[in-house]
Amino acid sequence: MEATFWHNKWETNEIGFHEKEYNPGLTRHFSGLDLPSGSRVFVPLCGKTRDIHWLLKEGFKVVGAELSELAVKQLFEELQTQPAVEDTASGKIYTAPGIQVFTGDIFQLTGNSIGRIDGIYDRAALVALPDSMRKKYTEHLRAITDTAPQLVITFTYDQAHMDGPPFSVPAAEIETFYAPFYQLKQVQDSEVKGGLKGQCEARINVWQLIEKA
To answer: Which residues bind S-adenosyl-L-methionine (predicted)?
Structure first.
């Protein structure tokens, strides 16, 4: 997707993808990654997700990446904390106790810039990207996080009835991108009540990805 697409979504407040409550897939299944309190969790394409509030409340440290600086500003407003802002070669970094969010192109981030990552929570990144970008994204994500364990939430539906985002990401793609590097466990496969965006039948899938020994 072009960057202007997402900037326009935030500038016009067309953010139906923003959930007002914690994602049930996160609260039910994140513990399966077996990360101790204080672990650094990377949240790619994080927006201003409420899920960050939950991760912080549970004692995790959050490292986010988000294209829209407007979304990042709104995130910290809702966290009711005043971040320090630093300009770097990777873009602006917003930092407050327990949280650091990078603004700009996620593909410009490096492992050195984000530091050690203990786990990844991908609710809105993989499904936001068209199939032409997903291989590049998954390879980049593994590279900058040293193949950290992941909780990944995806949708499956017939894109003949509706196109994304969020896009349909079938199990075969998860296996293609990640099976060589992770043990895959699908921990949820359930119907999206009311359909995706109220337009078509869909299923929500939650995956735990644990690095192979």
So the answer is: 10, 45, 66, 123
* Pair 104, 91: CB distance under 8 Å: yes
- Percent of the chain's residues with pLDDT above 70: 91
Task: Establish if 44 belongs to a structural domain.
Answer: yes
50: annotated binding-site residue?
A: no
pTM for this one?
A: 0.92
Inter-CA distances, 42 with 8, 49, 122, Å: 25, 13, 8
Residue 93's CATH number: 3.40.50.150
* 10 annotated among ligand-binding-site residues: yes
- 172 is a domain residue: yes
129 close to 22: Cβ distance less than 8 angstroms: no
Q: Which domain holds residue 55?
A: 3-9+25-211
Annotated ligand binding at 66? The verdict is yes
pLDDT digits (tens, 9 = 90+) for 168-213: 999 999 999 999 999 999 999 999 999 998 889 999 999 999 998 7
Q: Which tens digit of pLDDT belongs to each residue from 26-37?
A: 999 999 999 999
